[in-house]
Amino acid sequence: MIIMIAAIAENNALGKNNELVWHLPNDFKRFKSLTTNHHIIMGRKTFESFPKPLPNRVHIVITRQTDYKPEGCIVVDSMEKAIALCPENEDSYIIGGGEIYTLGMPFSDILEITKVHHTFDADAFFPKISKSEWQLVEAEENFKDEKHLYDYTYETYIRK
Question: Which of 2, 78, 145, 157: disulfide with 134, CB 3.0–4.6 Å?
């Protein structure tokens, strides 16, 4: 299955200047637990936002740059090529950024969304989740605390 995973604000904001605009440690833990030992598909800018490749994951980077060859990554120039490299009988994750989410939406079977209950100034946005195409099947509310400045909800959508 192809699973899109993202943390998005109420206004669909993803981030600004290639960085997240919030810090939710529990969301990082969830992201790690879901994506570890799987293929992850991302754009070049998302890959470059990491201090180093994420451990125990196969990195597939989509870019138009023909000479881009980061160590330990598979580089392709389209979403179709990225998905073709993912094992058919395993979960694979599309992890961003904004343009990659838009390209990946038609290929995705499940959306794993962390909805951050706040609006942010941003330059990258998640595509609109169409209620006619996606059904919310699970929601788990989490409330702000000393480590989390905002309320947030884990939402799982399946394609109708």
Answer: 157
